[in-house]
Design a protein that fits this description.
This protein has 260 residues and is an alpha/beta fold. The chain has one domain: Alpha/Beta hydrolase fold, catalytic domain (Rossmann fold, 3-Layer(aba) Sandwich), CATH 3.40.50. It contains eight helices and ten strands. Strands 1-2-4-3-5-6-9-10 form an eight-stranded mixed β-sheet, with helices on both faces. Strands 7-8 form a two-stranded antiparallel ribbon. Helix 3 links the parallel strand 5 and strand 6. Helix 1 packs across helix 8. It starts with a strand and ends in a 7-residue tail after the last helix.
Length: 260
């Protein structure tokens, strides 16, 4: 069962989707909530998020999946992308899960851009999550973004102008956004304190975010790492996505042990 709603706080209106099982349709609170964040140019409405939510809440009781649109993505109303507002969105959504859904345990499943933001969040804001699963995290997000900006647009940025980036939906960025990305690379920080509660999956055929980056990050921090043979960046092959979902669900559930 899906419920779309907005969290209105501090002048923001965060578009959210709550996925629960039909047997829990009368429930308003859930002991375990998995917050799911998407990648750049995507949204909370992906087939992968829907499938993850349905599988998790069908298999195990007491779970809900809470997905939301990052700023400037999906149905979000903002036009200019900043890291600070992304951090604020994740803070507000996590607080909603704790206060309104009364989650005892929070989990995080994030992809690509969402993976980078989650890793940054852990060090700059704190860690509200019991366990964290990252799929194809954009470890070198600055380099990944810069490589996709034409030289003409880079010149505009250097002159203090804004440019538009994105796929179906365009969003504005300026030079300060790229400077912010450049100032923080997860590979330059230690994550040993989070290693036991973190799991990373990455496709061997990812041509957007190199698997070597994620592998090096995992090895440097002694984090469990699983390469998915043949998977590309969005895990378009249903078998690859199904395997990733299965592994992440079991990783999360091992923390709770409350199977039906």
């Amino acid at each position: 069962m899906e419920k779309h709603f907005e969290i209105n706080e501090d002048g923001y209106s965060i578009r959210c989707k709550l996925i629960t099982n039909d047997r829990d349709k009368a429930a308003r609170t859930f002991p375990h909530v998995a917050i799911v964040t998407h990648g750049f140019g995507s949204s909370k409405e992906t087939a992968g998020i829907k499938s993850f939510g349905e599988h998790l809440t069908t298999k195990y009781k007491g779970w809900a999946v809470l997905a939301f649109d990052w700023p400037c993505h999906g149905m979000d109303a903002r036009k200019k992308l900043t890291i600070d507002e992304c951090m604020t969105y994740l803070t507000i959504v996590a607080k909603h899960a704790k206060n309104e859904l009364q989650a005892k345990d929070l989990f995080n499943y994030s992809t690509s851009l969402g993976g980078y933001l989650t890793l940054r969040y852990l060090l700059e804001i704190g860690n509200p999550f019991q366990r964290i699963a990252l799929r194809c995290p954009a470890i070198h997000l600055y380099e990944t973004m810069l490589a996709r900006i034409p030289e003409a647009d880079r010149t505009k940025l250097r002159k203090g102008k804004e440019i538009q980036i994105g796929f179906e939906r365009k969003m504005k960025i300026d030079q300060s956004f790229l400077d912010d990305l450049k100032s923080f690379s997860p590979l330059e920080h230690e994550y040993f304190d989070f290693a036991d509660s973190m799991f990373i999956l990455h496709g061997t055929n990812d041509d957007t975010v190199p698997i070597e980056d994620a592998r090096a990050f995992a090895e440097n921090n002694v984090i469990e790492f699983l390469p998915i043979a043949g998977a590309n960046h969005p895990f378009q092959n249903p078998d690859h996505m199904a395997l990733a979902i299965h592994k992440i669900i079991e990783f999360f559930h091992a923390e709770t042990q409350d199977a039906i």
